[in-house]
Amino acid sequence: MHRYEELERLYYKKLFLKIFLGIFLFIVIVVSLFFLLTFSKENKKETVKKQKVVKSKESKKEKNDTKKIEKKVFVKKTQNKIEPLNFIVPDIEEKKESKPVKTENQNEKKPLKVKKEVKKRYPIIKEVPVIQEKEVKIDDLIKSYKLNPNYDLALMIAKKFYKKNNLKSAQIWVIKANNLDPSRVESWLLFADILLKEHKKQKALEVLKIYLDQYGDNEAVSAKIRSINE
């Protein structure tokens, strides 16, 4: 029985020691955490203060530097000051003609100027050269068209054939011009004239109306339609 009591006492002692050690460790941890937190806050405050002090010093230095620069510039400006020039303008209304200043050489006689005989110059009449226009051959125009196909050349060839009453060839070249630039009205009007010479009045009117439908109103085309209908 006594052995059991001793064992029970030893158990309670160990239990008490464990509880005591646990409480002690907990207190130590809490105290250390508290100190650490306070220390970190103080460090932050000190760093902020230092930064403020450094910034204030830098701002003071910058202000001093700017003041020095301003002083230097002001000194330079004062040194380079130019005195204003007073330009005196004479009264033009009162003194229109200034009297000539007498000099010693004024009394000396000036040499007489000898009048030179001026020869009359008659205008030279140049002969105006007479420009003779040579007729360009259709074959030459066709050769140049083959080298460089363009609307104006094709239309010129068509007009040449139309004047010679070669309506088939004129129609071929008008169509070539129209294919190169269908929006230009000259080829449409010439094509209508060719159809009228071939006694195709209705077809000429249709061609001109197609142009108006595709490209809008045109005075030359509408005038041509009126002249056909009269």
Describe the structure.
The structure is a single chain. The protein is mainly α. The chain contains 7 helices and no strands. Helix 5 packs antiparallel against helix 6. The longest helix is centred in the N-terminal third of the chain and has 78 residues. It is elongated.
Reconstruct the topology from this structure:
Elements: H1 2-79, H2 138-147, H3 151-163, H4 167-180, H5 185-197, H6 201-215, H7 219-229
Ends distance? 153 Å
| Average pLDDT number | 75
Structural class: mainly alpha
Silhouette = elongated
- Percent of residues in helices comes to 55-70%
Question: What are the main properties of this structure?
Answer:
elongated; Serine Threonine Protein Phosphatase 5, Tetratricopeptide repeat; 230 residues; 67% helix; mainly alpha
Can you give me a brief rundown of this structure?
67% of the residues lie in helices and 0% in strands.
